[in-house]
Design a protein that fits this description.
With 466 residues, the chain is α+β, with helices and mostly antiparallel strands. Helices cover 28% and strands 19% of the residues.
């Protein structure tokens, strides 16, 4: 079982348990395939034990009347509250369901009771290896709707951290799609307030008034969202000619939502759960661990604070070196090495991510790099629609730096100061205590056969040893 298709949901308690397979006769089985919006596609399959994911994918696509190219846009997943597995075409879903407890034991920290109670369901969702440069060319409304529903789910669940202003604009597009054109008599602030969670991430929404609301506002690191901001954004949504039910208008709204999501560097990522060390705080130098989500895409790796819903570290593959270790006496660890500074001195920084899924993360990083290398000879990513042709428009999204993602203290910006890293330079010249001491780059695994900005830092001649 390769690990390059596994990820873990950020909020597993929010997902309901559902069984996808039931017997419908001696050789026939009812198979329930779920879309991200919980729509159910009911299938009857012969000889289920030998049916491959590719065959089942074809049946689902035909049932949903999707175009032929849907096979590269979407994939079948096995999903439970604690583990998500994207299936390869050759995988047999029935057999993987029989092995589910073994997978949970290997890749999660669930208790024995939770493992026994957990049951996966089949989902039809975006393939994590489908590039954004191809997605922007999609015109089929049914495909766009499925991609929109998945992007909306990830925004509302906080899996795609976004700034408040962007969330309000995205929420306004959801309003326009679900409620039709803005109607000042019907779409009032009170009307939106009762449905705020349907348009905005709950962690951004202000709840209630009075003392509790005042305390939250005083201690919050960013302003909460409210119905007034969403209402103003809803009013600003441009209207095209034609009724709200017009398919062309809906297609444009789906595209507008997805185009904004494409600007997020972690759009289309696979998600894994883990922990990192907190920086020592207070006189007693107390520390601990912080729960994080590791998002890995075709472009890079992103460490996201699971509670605060903001990025702690974002690295393109050209900017990092990595490895996975599992000493017999320690936990699984994904090591990330990247360039940084310590009091103005260039250093190499090491970040430890503790997770039973570290092996899967390492495998996925390696697979994405290999996949990118195989695509190097193809045409560069086209500029986004309606954008002037320029070299900047063809750069990867991480480098585009649109004005919306350049705000000071944006949730999409790295927060290196919030990380407890090991800082070191070569030749054993330490700035901070280093274990183990290395004379070269800590890892040999990094991007090869392609331009890279990462390099091991050498100690200056006059640098004092720590």
């Amino acid at each position: 079982m390769e690990g390059d298709r596994l990820s873990v949901p950020q909020n597993p308690e929010d997902r309901s348990q559902r069984s996808s397979i039931s017997s419908a006769g001696p050789r026939n089985h009812d198979v329930l395939v779920y879309l991200v919006d919980d729509t159910v596609v009911r299938l009857t399959v012969d000889n289920l034990s030998s049916v491959t994911a590719q065959e089942l994918h074809h049946i689902v696509s035909k049932t949903l009347q999707l175009p032929e190219d849907a096979h590269e846009i979407f994939a079948l997943w096995l999903v439970s509250p604690v583990l998500e597995l994207q299936l390869k075409p050759k995988h047999q879903p029935y057999k993987l369901c029989r092995q589910w407890q073994d997978l949970l034991f290997r890749f999660t920290s669930c208790s024995a009771d939770d493992i026994l109670e957990d049951e996966p369901s089949l989902q039809f969702r975006r393939d994590i290896f489908f590039p954004k440069r191809k997605e922007v060319q999609i015109q089929d409304e049914d495909v766009l709707r499925l991609l929109f529903e998945e992007a909306k789910y990830n925004i509302l669940e906080g899996r795609y951290p976004s700034d408040l202003a962007d969330c309000e604009e995205l929420g306004a597009l959801i309003c326009r799609i679900n409620l039709g054109p803005f109607n000042p008599k019907q779409h009032t602030a009170c009307f939106l307030k009762e449905r705020l969670d349907s348009f905005l991430p709950p962690h951004l929404c202000r709840r209630g008034h009075g003392l509790l609301s005042a305390i939250w506002k005083r201690g919050a690191t960013r302003l909460p969202a409210d119905e007034q901001g969403l209402l103003r954004a809803f009013q600003r949504v441009p209207e095209e000619d034609g009724a709200c039910e017009d398919r062309a208008a809906l297609r444009q709204l789906y595209q507008a939502y997805l185009q904004k999501c494409h600007l997020l560097p972690y759009y289309g990522c696979a998600f894994f759960s883990g922990e990192i060390d907190k920086p020592a705080q207070g006189l007693l130098h107390r520390s601990g661990r912080k729960a994080v989500t590791v998002a890995i895409s075709l472009e890079g790796v992103y460490i996201i604070d699971s509670k605060e819903k903001h990025v702690l570290l974002g690295l393109r593959f050209q900017e990092l070196s990595w490895d996975h270790t599992f000493p017999s006496e320690e936990e699984h660890i994904l090591w990330l090495e990247f360039d940084g500074e310590n009091e103005g001195t260039p250093v190499n920084k090491l970040l430890k991510v503790y997770s039973k899924q570290a092996e899967l993360m390492s495998s996925l990083i390696e697979y994405c790099i290999e996949l990118n290398s195989s695509l190097e000879g193809q045409d560069p990513e086209p500029a986004p629609r309606e954008a002037p042709p320029s070299s900047e428009a063809r750069k990867p999204p991480f480098n585009r730096q649109p004005h919306k993602l350049q705000r000071q203290n944006s949730v999409t910006c790295s927060r290196i100061q919030h990380l407890a890293t090991i800082d070191y330079v070569e030749e054993g010249k330490e700035i901070k205590r280093v274990k183990p001491r290395r004379t070269t780059s800590f890892f040999g695994r990094q991007l090869s056969n392609a331009p890279t900005s990462y390099s091991a830092v050498r100690a200056a001649e006059n640098l004092e040893q720590g």
